[in-house]
Every structure is written in structure tokens, then in C-alpha cells.
Amino acid sequence: MRALVKASAAPGFVLKDVPVPTYRDDEVLIRVKAAGVCGTDVHIHEWDAWAQGRCKPPFVVGHEFAGVVEKVGSLVTDVKVGERVTAEGHIVCGHCHLCRTGNAHVCPNTKIIGVDRDGAFADYIAMPATNVWHLDDNIPFEIGGIHDPMGNAFHTALHGTDLPGATVLVTGCGPIGIFAVGIAKAAGASHIVASDVNPKRLELARRMGAHSAVHPKDAEAAVKAATHGLGVDVVLEMSGVPAAIHQGFALVRVGGRVQMLGIPAKPMDVDFATEVIFKGITVYGVVGRRMYDTWIQRTQFLRAGQFDPTPVITHRFPLEQHAEAIAVIKSGEAGKVVFEIS
Ligand code: NAD
Ligand code: ZN
Q: Are 13 and 138 in a shared domain?
């Protein structure tokens, strides 16, 4: 089969023929139809310090995908050949303290497809049956193929936030931030301010329902105007940029909530006394998607037609154009980029 491979400990990917993966008795083999390309794939492509510390080439890249079940292992009972599926890409142990207390998203034994084991930029991928998620008939493969980052946005926007009627600031309108704008809107937020330095991304945020989408220098004025000077009830921090994180702490109201998804590239200073403690705020660190509350909530939003992620997909490529896909993400001009695989 064709697979996009991180072949060696150096920058780049290689598209090559590799054997179809073997699958265990409790796993299924999935023919990949569509697969989202993520910032993480760019880190692996560039072979930056994070990738060098984490990844062990050679392996097949890609962790966001959807497809059709081709084969099932002998112990699999609830997934059938021919079904349209996506999957949770974090493979957890199922027996640790976290897994057994409903917090498998932070399982310390997590293995991520396309990072720690072979991934989805290929004609086929093997997945544990317990990670498989069925797609409704009306959900296109390309939407199934972006369930991973969309799930990050659902987790960030909905976990503990009490959004109906809330005022919200989304800092960072990358693909995940733009999803979050649409989700907050669908969940009943009364006013959403979105910030980014990139005008194209602000335009996408407006399309997804932001009441105002502004450069960070204008975010304070937009928040103050929308909240009678109080500050927003909820900040969804989707950039990982220190200036945006500080701005989120500054513009959340006293007693509000900051949901932190964006990952700063290196350690940063926070004045906990003034930014967190004396504001009485709650800070929630987001890891991936809650298993499987996030998946259930998202399926219900999509089923009800409350939220349509389609406008976030701006580019589609065959696997052969992997260099173009990486380049357009690096340019900062794209929303979500998807490989159309078979
Ligand atoms: P992205 O890099 O495409 O988006 C970040 C956006 O922030 C960009 O559009 C950038 O222009 C914008 N930005 C830069 N400076 C800003 C500022 N001062 N104020 C507001 N916006 C600013 O990333 P993405 O793929 O949408 O992911 C968002 C973040 O989430 C990244 O940091 C990524 O590493 C992280 N992430 C976290 C998890 C998790 O489980 N915690 C999972 C996936 C991604
Ligand atoms: Zn575990």
C-alpha cells in the first residue's frame, strides 16, 4: 500500500510502498478515505526539537482520519466490515488510575497513532476496535477525517464552561480556534470575540459565527464593549502564544474560566497572584478529547445540524501532493487541510 513515512531522523516525508499493516485479534483494519493534516505533522516533518525527543522513525505519519472497515480481528464484536468509521487516535491502557476514573484522555500510558505507532496517511491503518467511532451516514469522510481536531475544540469549548448565554473570547483562530467559535455559537454563547493576527483566519472566524473577529491589539476594546467592561465569562485559549495567554487572563472576568488548549513552545512566566489567584478564575488544561463524552456530544451536535465544520476545510490534496499540503499549513493561510486518500 501507499504510505507517507517519516523514514529517518531528518526533515521530510517519503511517500512509498509498505506492507498493509497486520492487526491483532482485538483490532480492525480500516481503508483510509480522508485524513486531516495537523500542526503536529508539520513538527514531525520539520524534525524539530519536540519531534526529535518524541518520535522514533521509521513510522507512518498521520493521526486524523476516517474510512471504511476492511477486516476485523477474531475478538471484535461491535465493529463490522463495511462500516464507515473514524477513531480516537490516542490509544490508552484501560487499566491505570486515570483510565478507571473516567479520565482516559490523560492516561500516562497513551500511545498516539502517527506519532508513537503507525498512522493514517496510508491506504490502510490498524486500530484497536475500542477506539473506533461510527460515523452517521450523512457525515462525509472529510468531516470524519477531521474529528480529532474538531474534538479538541468541543472538549475545550464545552467541558465545564456553562456556555448558554455566556460571553466568550477565543484567542487564536487556527483550525481548532475556528471550530471552537462555531461550537460556542451552537452551544448558545451570547457574544463571541475571536482574536488572531491573521486577517484570513479572522474572516473564517466571522463565517463560523464570531460577533467580532479582531487583531489582538483590538481585543480588549471588543471585550470591554461586549461585556460592559466586566470581561468575558469564558476564554478559549487556542494559540499557545504567551501574549495571547496573558491577554486571556487579563480579559476573563473575575471568577471566570480559562480553557487552555494552545501549547506554548517553551516555559513562560505567569504572575499567578494577579493573573489567576486574586481573579478567582478556574484554569482548565485540555488534553485531546474526553473519552468518550466529547465524542458523544460532538455526534449529537452534528446529528442535530447545530454545527457545520465544513467551511473550516480550505484545502484538499492527494497524498502525492504532501509537500504542497505541508507548505500551505506553514504559510498560515489555510484553515483545515485534508488528504483525499481513496
Ligand atoms: P495554529 O498554529 O494553526 O493556530 C494558532 C493561531 O494563533 C494562528 O492562527 C496564529 O496566527 C494565532 N496567533 C498568534 N499570535 C496570536 C495572538 N497574540 N493572539 C491571538 N492569536 C494569535 O494551531 P491549531 O492547529 O489551531 O492549534 C492550536 C493550538 O493548540 C496549538 O498551540 C497546538 O499546538 C495546540 N494543540 C493542543 C492540543 C491539546 O491536546 N492540548 C491538541 C492539538 C493542538
Ligand atoms: Zn490508562
A: yes
Task: Say if CB 105 and CB 290 are below 8 A apart.
Answer: yes
pLDDT tens digits along 238-295: 999 999 999 999 999 999 999 999 999 999 999 999 999 999 999 999 999 999 999 9
- In ligand 1, the atom with minimum distance to the C-alpha of 176 is 26
Sign, CA torsion 172/173/178/181: positive
40 lies in some domain:
yes
How many domains is the chain built from?
A: 2
Share of the chain above pLDDT 90, in %: 99
**From CA 92, how far away is CA 111, in angstroms rounded?**
7
Shared domain for 58 and 74, answered yes or no, is yes
Instruction: Please check the confidence at residue 333 and state whether its pLDDT lies above 90.
Output: no
Atom 39 of ligand 1, residue of closest alpha carbon:
287
User: How is 34-70 classified by DSSP, letter by letter?
Assistant: EEEE-HHHHHHHHT-HHHHHH--SSEE---EEEEEEE
Q: Which of 285, 300, 330 is the last residue of a domain?
A: 285
Taking only the tens place, the pLDDT of each residue in 201-245 is: 999 999 999 999 999 999 999 999 999 999 999 999 999 999 999
Using one digit for the tens of pLDDT, what is the confidence trace for 163-198? 999 999 999 999 999 999 999 999 999 999 999 999
pLDDT value of residue 342: 85
pTM, two decimal places: 0.98
Does residue 139 sit in the same domain as residue 10? Answer: yes
Q: Quote the domain boundaries for residue 43.
A: 2-146+309-340
Cβ atoms within 10 Å of 62's Cβ, excluding its own:
31
Q: Which residues line ligand 1 (CB under 6 A)?
A: 39, 152, 171-177, 195-198, 201, 216, 238-241, 243-244, 261-263, 286-288
Residues near ion ligand 2 (CB < 5 Å) are 92-93, 96, 99, 107, 109
- Quick check: is 40 catalytic? yes
Of 87, 113, 144, nearest in space to 341 by CA: 144
User: Does 34 map to a domain?
Assistant: yes
Q: For residue 302, tell me if it sits in a domain.
A: no
Mean pLDDT of the region 92-113: 98
Residues 238 and 269 in one domain: yes
- 184 and 275 share one domain: yes
The residue whose CB lies within 8 Å of the most ligand 1 atoms, and thus the one to mutate among 169, 179, 196, is 196
